[in-house]
Amino acid sequence: MSAYYTFSRREPQADGTCIAYYQPTKNAQGAWNEHEQHMAPATGILTHELSQFTPQTDMRIARISLDILGLIPFDDFTITTRCIRPGKTIELIEAVMTSRGRDCIVARAWRLLTQDTSAIAGLEDAEALHHPEELSVWEGIKGWPGKFIESVHLVSETDRRAGKGMVWITNETAMVAGEPTTDLVKLLGMVDTANGVVPRIGMGLSKLEWMFPNTDLQIHMHRSPKGHWLGIEAVQQFGADGIGLTSAVLHDVHGPFGRSEQILTIRPMPK
């Protein structure tokens, strides 16, 4: 099976932090710039490291907040993971991706205590209208360049339009070569595509006069996702002063499990 990353080694430190060493494969190539990694698999590999760091059987990741500090080089990198706020019921952990001598992404995750609240459970987000296997293939995403986009498979609801709609996305690529990919890592490693599935101004770089990359990705989950299909029910909004927002309800085949937000910087495409 092909993979997005290859693992080199992991070095626990005396202060409790852990440094992991990775190399991206061609499948991690970005869409906005061929010399950078796509934020989607980068989110997946950071989730992979956060999940493995001092795991607790009665706690799970409920939110991941990722700040993109600049271009994510298509080059070797490290991920340094540490605990910021330890606790028995609430814990904050952090993973920082570093390449070419600078930090690229800072990811922070809240791990919260799990317990049986089924007696009072209730959702307001609606179920998806269709299972992904019932929908037609959507090739529109292939208007974006890069090997990551080539690695994914999408289907779409028929009413998807510029600015709003729902797609389902999956892939057959392992996050790390030679290692199993958990459902959490698989699905969160595709969430960043939300910004490219309902663009207000068209698909593909060659036709765009404006670019709208996100500078962050926020993911909140009221339950842990399962399976290999990610449903993205997205809305994209552009303000009048150069800032936009892509918001999504996130689904797996069992129903909605959380939400994502991406803040966008809207600017003219470089000539």
Please count the helical segments.
Answer: 4
Cα distance spanning the termini = 38 Å
Integer tally of domains: 1
Series of secondary-structure elements, N-terminal to C-terminal: EEHEEEEEHEEEHHEEEEEE
- Rg, Å, rounded: 18 Å
Task: Find the count of extended strands (DSSP E, 2+ residues).
Answer: 16
CATH class: Mainly Beta
Global mean pLDDT: 96
List the helices and strands and how they pair.
Blueprint: E1 3-12, E2 18-24, H1 39-52, E3 59-68, E4 77-85, E5 90-99, E6 102-113, E7 136-137, H2 147-151, E8 152-156, E9 164-171, E10 174-176, H3 183-188, H4 194-197, E11 210-211, E12 216-221, E13 230-238, E14 243-252, E15 255-265, E16 267-268
Parallel strand pairs: 1-10
Antiparallel strand pairs: 1-2, 2-4, 3-6, 3-12, 4-5, 5-6, 7-8, 8-9, 9-13, 11-16, 12-15, 13-14, 14-15
Concise account of the structure shown:
The chain has helices spanning 39-52, 147-151, 183-188, 194-197, and strands at 3-12, 18-24, 59-68, 77-85, 90-99, 102-113, 136-137, 152-156, 164-171, 174-176, 210-211, 216-221, 230-238, 243-252, 255-265, 267-268.
